[in-house]
Design goal:
heterodimer, A: mainly beta, 2 helices, B: two-stranded antiparallel sheet
Chain lengths: 168, 388
């Protein structure tokens, strides 16, 4: 039998169709509340953030210190063994200078997301956070950074208890 | 393994557009009916349907595969949706493959659809909830962050310049000028155009990224005896593979896609490939960002780690080069309706290996191709090897 190569000519709407309100738009005001359980590991992690400390969990089999902490090691697939304090200093593994918000609105000053290895955690066990007090032009992979904490009475057990990391 | 041989015998797709007038159901029907028409089958001759589509949140419809299933031809049939985010478009035909290879069904219709455009003001909103709810989402992340962080890690590890990466976007957008379904084909685009586009999340600029796109693609899979009755040019699914890396994405090696290597090893073993660079004639790696094509070519073991940019500069990956990469135009050129874009790569290999790709046809009678997609929280690799 003969075979054919078939493309259907889908109709694209024009930008003007949106500007002129010719597109059906529906907005819902959804009330969606989630009662999130923190779990054992993250519960302790958040509680320690409130105390101005960072903690991980150690797996004695693969000898890794894991941050954020978890109660099982995904490599060894066995329980992790003990809590391990880590420092609030570290090294930037990679970064970006982000000039757009999530909804694509442009920012004058870039946000600087980073992945950093904390001192005391195993190498390659990065966490994501943001960099502050830094000239965007001067940010480098390998740069040493330290956490800038909120004052103790403003902390609420959130990753945002660290405002950002700053160069040291 | 006691599996039956499975062939792709038909393919169809919609044009990829910025925003389609058609609903998701209508897009599915257009792609599915074209795929059936291409191999002169009717829906009654299809035993099972597999659907692929990425987040429900794009459409604002929960369980959207079931919602568009009538358009995908699934009424009254065994139906399945596998979901691995952006990896879905190459995972869906792998699922269709094991439906047929296992002997359970003789034919299977695989339909992938995506409308990214309904989410306003931008589908990024639908993505914020992929981040960990405590340790990351509270930072107000932007989906672009993780790609920019990964691209920077890759560039820094291997000393790659933006110019080297921009060549990928240029190649793919130029290739797409020959694709009848493409959104962004541009024969005249240059590296300078890419480098002059606005910075979104450095090092990611506007033209380094594939845009929001709507579209659907469908392929028909058949067991060997059925395929031989239908056509004298079956294209065999020779190997399938998929693998997950850790969901602690910041713990991963961001400069190398281990998830692709693991998926490729599974698919290559099944296909009897021991030297990918010699035994594969066309590659359609997943290219939603230009650096990802390079990353994924290395993960597919087609070039050494850090070696894909030089191969691109040398013209090896051009349509007329020694290893054509994304001769379709890829996601950067044809467009990126996420799951549909992955299946578009399977359709492209089907057309290329049959010599039916028209102006896009790769010269030299290509015999084997590999398609790959990637997704979830940057952790899944899906790979399909096809040959004639």
């Amino acid at each position: 039998m003969r075979m054919k190569h078939l493309v259907y000519p889908t109709q694209g709407l024009h930008e003007d169709d949106f500007k002129q309100g010719k597109v059906l738009t529906e907005t819902w005001h959804v009330k969606a509340e989630y009662a999130w359980d923190t779990g054992v590991a993250i519960g302790r992690y958040l509680a320690e953030l409130k105390n101005g400390r960072l903690v991980g969990r150690k797996c004695l089999k693969c000898n890794r210190v894991l941050v954020p902490p978890r109660m099982f090691c995904e490599l060894c697939f066995r329980p992790t063994d003990e809590w391990a304090p880590v420092q609030d200093t570290g090294t930037i593994k990679t970064f970006s200078l982000c000039y757009v918000r999530w909804d694509m609105v442009r920012l004058k000053e870039p946000e600087i997301p980073i992945v950093l290895d904390l001192d005391g955690a195993s190498r390659g066990i990065g966490i994501m956070h943001k960099l502050g007090e830094a000239d965007p032009k001067s940010v480098r992979i390998g740069m040493r950074v330290q956490a800038v904490w909120k004052p103790a009475d403003e902390r609420e057990g959130s990753i945002n208890d660290i405002r950002y990391f700053k160069p040291i | 393994m006691g599996m039956r041989r499975v062939a792709v015998v038909g393919a169809g797709m919609t044009r990829f557009v910025r925003r389609s007038l058609e609903t998701g159901r209508e897009l599915c029907w257009e792609a599915a009916s074209k795929a059936l028409e291409s191999c002169e089958l009717t829906i009654d001759q299809i035993d099972a349907v597999v659907a692929g589509t990425a987040p429900d949140a794009f459409d604002g419809v929960h369980m959207k595969s079931e919602w568009f299933s009538d358009g995908a031809g699934a009424w009254g049939k065994p139906f399945m949706r596998g979901y691995v985010g952006g990896g879905t478009g190459v995972f869906a035909p792998a699922q269709g493959w094991y439906h047929v290879a296992s002997g359970l069904f003789d034919t299977c219709l695989v339909v992938c659809e995506e409308k990214m455009s309904p989410t306003q003001p931008h589908p990024q909103a639908a993505f914020n909830s992929i981040f960990d709810n405590f340790t990351e989402r509270a930072l107000g992340p932007n989906l672009l962050w993780i790609f920019a962080l990964e691209m920077n890690a890759y560039m820094t590890r291997y000393g790659i310049k933006k110019e080297d990466i921009a060549q990928v976007a240029v190649k793919n957008k130029r290739n797409a000028a020959d694709h009848p379904a493409s959104l962004l084909g541009d024969r005249n685009i240059t590296v300078q155009d890419i480098l002059n586009s606005e910075v979104m999340a450095w090092p990611v600029q506007r033209l380094d990224v594939s845009p929001i796109t709507d579209g659907a693609v469908a392929v028909v899979l058949a067991a060997e005896p059925v395929a031989r009755r239908l056509t004298n040019k079956p294209v065999w699914v020779e190997g399938v593979g998929w693998a997950l890396d850790t969901s602690y994405w910041t713990n991963r090696d961001l400069a190398y896609p281990t998830y692709v290597e693991e998926a490729a090893r599974m698919a290559y073993k099944m296909a009897g490939i021991t030297e990918p660079r010699k035994q594969i004639n066309i590659a359609e790696p997943y290219d939603p960002f230009d650096y990802k094509e390079l990353h994924h070519l290395e993960g597919l073991m087609l070039f050494p780690k850090g070696g894909a940019p030089q191969a691109t500069s040398d013209g090896i990956t051009q349509r007329t080069g020694d290893l054509p990469v994304c001769p379709s135009g890829g996601l950067l050129g044809v467009g990126n309706p996420i799951a549909a874009a992955g299946l578009m790569k399977i359709a492209e290999l089907f057309w290329q290996l049959r010599g039916e790709a028209g102006a896009r046809q790769v010269p030299g009678d290509p015999r084997r191709g590999v398609a790959q997609a990637w997704g979830d929280l940057m952790q899944v690799g899906t790979v399909v090897v096809m040959g004639k």
